[in-house]
């Protein structure tokens, strides 16, 4: 007869799985809270892009009202990003960052595009179309830190910023063509100089991120599209060469 004091084999404490289920429920709750905020941010982002898309059908000399409206729409996104950061910073950054990185790329893209068009300028300064906002300037506008290395908190990453610059190049390639339709023959030249400078900057980078590296390969094709627009304008003698 077996001893009653012999160890029991095959026995698993159900509390182990109850604890795991509690962790799963907690994780699901956090993701749902983040999802709710991100749905708002995505909706606001679509609204901002809808406003900025008017640049394709509006002469540059008449863009001021569009820029003002886009500025206001971006401020709404900034408020939502603040709510996102407040929730996200309670947890390790890389635990949930995959849920919001695309939305942060889109928010950064809206900011750099609006900045290029002449928006998001301080009240005491004149508008400066054609400028590139740095990652630090984007961070200041969106009110989040950038590229944190020593602190595990919500921030805008270099990769998200670079993705937004590639989106900017794609958008400007479209704008170059549509500007010709509007009879604005100077803007494609401005876009060409700007995008070539950006392309040169990307060539300096040694990109480790696979998706970023793949997207950066498309820059040269957009440069070519813009060059074709400028070349066609030159053949038709619709642009004047700048005097040295």
* First-residue to last-residue Cα separation: 106 Å
Strand content: under 5%
Per DSSP, the total helix count is 9
Detail the poorly predicted runs. none
Mean pLDDT, all residues: 90
What coarse outline follows from CA principal-axis ratios? elongated
What share of residues is helical? 55-70%
Number of strands: 0
* Biggest β-sheet description: none
Question: Class by helix and strand content?
Answer: mainly alpha
Helix-strand pattern: HHHHHHHHH
Radius of gyration: 25 Å
Report what the structure shows.
This protein is mainly α and 244 residues long. Helices cover 65% and strands 0% of the residues. The protein has nine helices and no strands. α6 runs antiparallel to α7 and α6 runs parallel beside α9. The protein is elongated. The mean pLDDT is 90.
Topology:
Blueprint lengths: L13 H39 L11 H25 L4 H4 L4 H17 L17 H8 L15 H24 L5 H18 L5 H7 L2 H17 L9
Task: Please summarize what this structure is.
The chain has nine helices and no strands. The protein is mainly α and 244 residues long.
Key traits:
single chain, 244 residues, mainly alpha, 9 helices, elongated
């Amino acid at each position: 007869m077996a001893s009653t004091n012999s160890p029991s084999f095959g026995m698993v404490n159900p509390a182990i799985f109850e604890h795991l289920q509690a962790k799963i429920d907690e994780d699901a709750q956090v993701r749902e809270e983040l999802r709710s905020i991100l749905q708002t941010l995505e909706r606001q982002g679509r609204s901002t892009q809808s406003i900025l898309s008017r640049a394709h059908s509006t002469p540059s000399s008449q863009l001021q009202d569009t820029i003002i409206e886009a500025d206001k729409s971006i401020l709404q996104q900034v408020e939502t990003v603040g709510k996102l950061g407040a929730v996200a910073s309670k947890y390790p950054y890389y635990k949930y960052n995959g849920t919001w990185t695309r939305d942060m790329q889109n928010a950064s893209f809206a900011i750099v595009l609006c900045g290029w068009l002449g928006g998001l300028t301080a009240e005491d300064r004149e508008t400066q179309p054609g400028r590139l906002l740095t990652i630090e300037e984007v961070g200041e506008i969106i009110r989040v830190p950038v590229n944190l290395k020593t602190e595990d908190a919500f921030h805008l990453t270099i990769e998200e910023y670079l993705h937004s610059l590639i989106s900017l190049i794609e958008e400007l390639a479209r704008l170059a063509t549509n500007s010709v339709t509007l009879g604005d023959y100077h803007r494609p030249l401005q876009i060409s100089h700007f995008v070539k400078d950006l392309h040169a900057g990307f060539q300096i980078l040694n990109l480790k991120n696979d998706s970023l590296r793949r997207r950066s390969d498309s820059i040269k094709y957009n440069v070519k599209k813009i060059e074709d627009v400028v070349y066609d304008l030159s053949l038709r003698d619709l642009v004047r060469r700048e005097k040295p």
